[in-house]
TrEMBL record:
Family: Belongs to the universal ribosomal protein uS10 family.
Pfam families: Ribosomal_S10
Signal peptide: none
Keywords, alphabetical: Mitochondrion, Ribonucleoprotein, Ribosomal protein
Top-level lineage group: Eukaryota
Organism: Picea glauca (White spruce)
Protein name in UniProt: Ribosomal protein S10
Length: 78
């Protein structure tokens, strides 16, 4: 699987930027291979969710410019 994280962030990060990792979620699924017999025959799969929080320290006017640009890009796409 691929993560869109690097594409979304780009190289526009501020001077003081750090990533804070939050706890991972892990969901396990178990499915019976045959509904009639062989209950011991099962197929297992899992889904992992990784989350990161990005903390940036910027000046107010820089933040205002970045938010304005992102709004402008979002309205152009639609």
């Amino acid at each position: 699987m691929k993560s869109p994280g690097n594409k979304l962030l780009g190289n526009n990060l501020g001077r003081c930027t750090r990533k804070i990792g939050s706890p991972e979620e892990r969901v396990l699924y178990t499915v019976l291979r045959s509904p009639h017999i062989d209950k011991k025959s099962r197929e297992q799969s899992e889904m992992e969710i990784h989350k990161k929080l990005l903390v940036t320290e910027t000046e107010t006017h820089e933040l205002r410019k970045k938010l304005f640009r992102s709004k402008r890009r979002a309205t152009r796409r639609t």
